[in-house]
Amino acid sequence: MKLSYQRSPLKSYMVIRGEEKDIGYQEQMLQENAIPLLLPFYAIVVNMELEVWYDITGQRSLRDVIRQEGVTLENLRRVIEGLTQAFYKLQQYLIRQEDVYMNPDTVYFDRNHPNQISLCFCPVVHPDTQQQIYELMEFLVGQVDHNQKKVTQLCYELYEIAQDPVSMEQLAEKVRAVYDMEGEGEGTADRSGAPSIPSEERSIVIRENYQPDADRNAPAVFSPVKNLTPEQEDVGAKGRKTKTIKAKWEELLRKGKEECKVQFPLLSKLAFSRRKKEKKEDEYGVSEDFVFDPQEVLQQKTQLLHTKKEKKMESRTLQQGEAKLVYDGNGCESNYILDKNSFSIGSLAGENDAILHSDVVSRHHARIVKQEEGYYLEDLNSTNGTYLNGDLLPYNVKVLLHSMDQIMFADVTYHFV
Question: How many Å apart are CA 64 and CA 61, to the nearest integer?
Fold first, then answer.
């Protein structure tokens, strides 16, 4: 089994390729139902192997969440209880847990709604459920900050439990007991601002209203032998024009930007160029990412005052072995010295090393990693993409940087020096 990533200007995909697995009656269930817990996907046969394309647009993998936020008690609860609740609800659709592939790269959380979890139904041969649980606990143990003694102790206890056959429900009970004992239970709010659910009804918000395309009754999976490319899928979406398109567009504007983008991506792009680009606060207290056309030249740039930290960074002398991001524009952004082994770039203050002020830069947009060979650039499944010398980078693919490379974080341009 091989996992890779592909990217188009409008969509981001995770691709799993390998030997086809018999999923029996579930194939019909998936074709006839839009199952909200699962990443939308379709499958094609390539050289006698099954290639499954999952739409991960606007999603953050568990690996990215933990890497950016750390292993905290709240995140442990969010992950383990979220998985437990998701598997319970999948039973209502007769989806077997053993046909869900669960690891740090295949469990996703919605970027704009951090508690919404999506799983990967995998019709490709993959490790059994017990092996997946063990590897997941092993990942958490490897990522935990050992200075946080209680969280570290809990991670190791979960890891020990996972040495033997165990269910997600058993792990969730262990996490819930520690969580409630620490006074983080009923009535408190998590990092995203969403109120937690009382213990007897505790669950993670699931993607109940998600639809993969404009048809509200569309299934979450296409025919396993349908030879459809992501580019053809996007073109098909752009082609939906009717006499009442203006009225539909106005109605969708009232419902929200994300639904507009799904049904009318071309009009969403045009509207972006006409309307003032303001971020909208949703019910979780976080701003949704804008979608923009990378070919457009944005005429207006906001002039912001640099913070003291940014001014200090710009004035510091470059040390031997260090590199720098030099801003190439007439807007508000700063230059940044890459003074960490993992240097994060995004619009969210407090969780990034480089804070970009553009409305179309994602909260966690990209990162630059220093290794022995040099500096590597990696996109973090950003909404509007990261471009290296004009090429759009796939998610989770590291590319070696060279001096004077041009990097575009959405519409913000830098040079690597």
Answer: 5
State how beta strands 336-338 and 366-371 pair: unpaired
Q: Rg of the chain's alpha carbons, rounded to an integer? A: 22
Contact at 8 Å (CB) between 312 and 337? Answer: no
Q: Which two tokens stand for residue 297?
A: 């030249």
CATH number listed for the domain at residues 308-416: 2.60.200.20
**CA atoms of 137 and 46, how far apart (whole Å):** 33
Greater confidence (273 vs 176) lies with 176
3-state secondary structure of 222: coil
Residue 288: band (very low, low, confident or very high) from pLDDT cuts 50, 70, 90: low
Strand, coil or helix: 66? helix
Tell me the C-alpha distance between 61 and 396, whole Å.
10
Beta-carbon count within 10 A of 302 CB: 10
Task: Record the pTM.
Answer: 0.71
Give per-residue pLDDT as tens, 134-147. Answer: 999 999 999 999 99
- Grouping H, G, I as helix, E, B as strand and the rest as coil, residue 116 is coil
Sequence ranges of the domains in the chain: 239-274, 308-416
Contacts of 142 (CB under 8 A, 6+ apart): none
* Residue for token pair 């203050």: 349
pLDDT above 80: residue 243: no
| Segments of 304-360 assigned E as strands | 323-327, 336-338, 342-346, 354-355
> Which 8-state DSSP code applies to residue 375?
E
